[in-house]
Prior knowledge:
The chain has ten helices and no strands. The longest helix is centred in the middle third of the chain and has 36 residues, at 196-231. 74% of the residues lie in helices and 0% in strands.
Amino acid sequence: MIISLLSVSAVVPSALLVWYFHARDVYPEPPRVLWTTFGLGVASVVPVLAVGFPLQEASAFIADPIFRSLLSALFVAAIPEESAKLAILIGYNVRHKSFDEPMDGIVYGVVASLGFATLENVLFVFEGGLGVAASRAFSAVPLHAFVGAIMGYYVGQAYFTTGRRSRLILKGYGIAVALHTLYDFPLMAMAEVEQMGSAALLALLTLIVLVICWRWAVRLVRRLRSDQLNATVVEGNDARMSAKPRKASFARRRVVPLLLSILGGLIASFGGMITFGLTLAFLINAVQKEHTVDVAIGGVIIGLIPLGGGFLLFRQGIRGMNAGVPAPVAVAERPADSPSAVTSATTEP
């Protein structure tokens, strides 16, 4: 039951991150394509493990523990995982008609990455124990999303920039592999060092990489969202918006929505874990009959209410972020004459 409870902790953060990136897209992608991309991300765990296990066994012959950790982070984790995500983007998403603007690269890159990260985290429950599973739900899952957004940005740019497709794709892939390696290496090296000071420094390095990826991904999303809004054309009027941007302090525009999103995500994740665990307990008849009512009431109080309240806070945070720039007037779909729209996403520039 504990394993199942922690397994769902990987699902709720993934769902919230998909929601965040999807909501930041002015022209949201079709749910069917998003779910297919997520499913392909989940399925990509199989070939990644098939490549990673032999390489992990081979790395055991390397004597130096730090060098072994670095090679494992690069060849066992970063290269196979980012290659699988890139294959999904190139092999499926860019060939789909819904891939018709640069922002789509970020959205699909995130969704494919979170599909992989969700199943990977569930598997880590069985291998790494409780602490590893819980910590990865709030560190490795966001890392996958942020790196997927960065690589997806370059893939999107590649398919909507003249003459630089291969170079941009390779650049995005190289950045994703480098960031992924820099994140994993300190964590892997921590298991090899005995000094507390060295372990703390390695943990700090991982945290720094995570923050850098977060800031980088958010900045790219803001840039493309601004491009989307600036390119919006409503019935031939040159990108005229429904309202002028409201003046607000930096804290109100950025800090408060961010804090609401983080707080809501944490509360929703906790509530989801409790709700899932108690639901499973009822299904397997692990709750004694005389305690059924008490457990049900407790589940509502510490499970369903935090789950729902956390989602509401998270949604409010996203709305606050999107309120910084006014939305276009009643635009149901991408304007055909928008600079970001193209006839075919697979046409060579």
